[in-house]
């Protein structure tokens, strides 16, 4: 069994840099800057009843430099288990869809009301593109706090229009932070809060308020309390801001089946594989940001000269992306030359590592030990 380890994701909660305030006179908008977010349709399952979500994290947003004309929607098939967790998530089309990498992970982190298992569910994500100058403030703030890349200056200007903290913002003398470990875990999804405040002549924050956020009340409250504890150099200002971000906690994979349950009856492949070029352990990048674990059950054959072929992921959870990643990984590996085999099987586990665990190196050393949870 292969174990994919991403140990760096278990690092302590990182605190983002403060949001920079800008002069009260906004710059002219730059043509060709657009904001993209994905709108999730109602979820319908086999009985045609809509399945309202209990918690639905937004897919990550993007800044575009064209209006996005011709962007296609993305439709996913899946099922919902008795706990309300989406599983067996698969996009209907394999065509490349720009800026859609976080759609399946966001759906995997969504939760529905518990109950009986619901099969043959479907949901569609539709791209919604707005110019920076005309987008809602929520879209602007959410893009700034959860960017796929550095947001343009026009986004900062929209957020801070009317303030006078300035580009040379007041220097912090004491910066308060939430106790992130005391906040509720967020399996598979992150949260953010944007706090607005003014400064007295003595540099003490006042008129502290939540400007916007991802809807996580504990983080909103902790962010306001953290700003209250902060102190700045002397000088009255208004319209200052500071953002706080809590990273996702690990969303464990559902239980994986035993390899023998999938081993073909005519298999000639030994259970212990004689690797010549070992599989290079690469975690699907779109799932590391959400700390989502997964697994894939992959079968393959081996030619006498060691080349691997007929690779097929028969099962993968919580999304088909883990199966695709496992197929790519195994196709690049080779066995030592030998008699050739049919019916080889690997259960590939994608596991978020804990602090201090070794990370896979580029030259593919011996596989790291399984993570003990």
Overview of the structural elements:
The chain has 373 residues and is an alpha+beta fold. Helix content is 14%, strand content 31%. It contains six helices and 18 strands. Strands 4-2-8-5-6 form a five-stranded antiparallel beta sheet. Strands 1-18-15-16 form a four-stranded mixed beta sheet, with helices on one face. Helix 2 crosses helix 3. The chain is elongated, with a radius of gyration of 24 Å. The relative contact order is 0.18. The C terminus is likely disordered.
Give the structure's gist in a few sentences.
Strands 4-2-8-5-6 form a five-stranded antiparallel sheet. It has a four-stranded mixed sheet with strand order 1-18-15-16, covered by helices on one side. A three-stranded antiparallel sheet has the order 11-10-13, with helices on both faces.
Instruction: Name the helix and strand elements from N-terminus to C-terminus, one letter apiece.
Output: EEEEEEHEEHHEEEHEEEHEEHEE
Arithmetic mean of pLDDT: 84
Unreliable segments (pLDDT under 50, ≥5 consecutive)?
6-12, 14-29, 355-373
Helix content: 10-25%
**What can be said about the biggest beta sheet?**
5 strands, antiparallel
Instruction: Give the overall shape, derived from the CA principal axes.
Output: elongated
Class by SSE composition: alpha+beta
β content, as a range? 25-35%
- Record the strand order, biggest sheet: 4-2-8-5-6
Q: What is the tally of helical segments?
A: 6
How many DSSP E strands?
A: 18
The N- to C-terminal Cα distance equals 17 Å
Radius of gyration: 24 Å
């Amino acid at each position: 069994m292969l174990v994919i380890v991403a140990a760096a994701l278990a690092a302590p909660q990182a605190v983002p840099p403060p949001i920079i305030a800008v002069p009260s006179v906004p710059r002219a908008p730059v043509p060709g800057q657009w904001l993209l977010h994905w709108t999730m349709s109602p979820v319908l399952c086999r009985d045609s009843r809509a399945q309202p979500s209990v918690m639905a994290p937004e897919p990550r947003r993007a800044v575009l430099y064209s209006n996005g004309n011709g962007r296609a929607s993305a439709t996913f098939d899946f099922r919902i288990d008795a706990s309300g967790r989406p599983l067996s998530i698969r996009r209907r089309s394999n065509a490349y869809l720009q800026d859609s990498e976080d759609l399946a992970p966001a759906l995997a982190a969504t939760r529905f009301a518990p109950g009986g298992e619901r099969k043959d569910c479907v949901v569609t994500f539709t791209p919604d593109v707005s110019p920076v100058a005309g987008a809602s403030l929520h879209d602007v703030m959410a893009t700034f706090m959860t960017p796929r890349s550095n947001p343009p200056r026009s986004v900062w200007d929209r957020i801070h229009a009317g303030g006078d903290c300035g580009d040379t913002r007041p220097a912090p003398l004491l910066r308060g932070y939430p106790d992130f470990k005391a906040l509720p875990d967020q399996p598979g999804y992150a949260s953010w809060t944007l706090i607005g405040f003014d400064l007295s002549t003595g540099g003490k924050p006042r008129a502290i308020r939540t400007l916007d956020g991802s809807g996580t009340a504990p983080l909103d409250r902790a962010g306001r309390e953290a700003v209250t504890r902060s102190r700045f150099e002397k000088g009255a200002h208004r319209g200052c801001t500071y953002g706080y971000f809590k990273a996702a906690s690990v969303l464990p994979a559902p239980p994986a089946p035993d390899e023998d349950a999938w081993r073909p009856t005519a298999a000639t492949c030994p259970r212990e594989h004689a690797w010549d070029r070992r599989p290079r352990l690469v975690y699907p990048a779109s799932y590391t940001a959400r700390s989502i674990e997964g697994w894939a059950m992959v079968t393959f054959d081996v030619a006498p000269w060691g080349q691997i072929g007929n690779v097929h992921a028969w099962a993968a959870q919580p999304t088909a992306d883990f199966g695709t990643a496992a197929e790519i990984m195994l196709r690049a590996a080779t066995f030592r030359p030998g008699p050739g085999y049919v019916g080889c099987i690997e259960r590939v586990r994608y596991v978020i590592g804990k602090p201090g665990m070794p990370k896979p190196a580029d030259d593919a050393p011996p596989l790291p030990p399984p993570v003990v949870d």
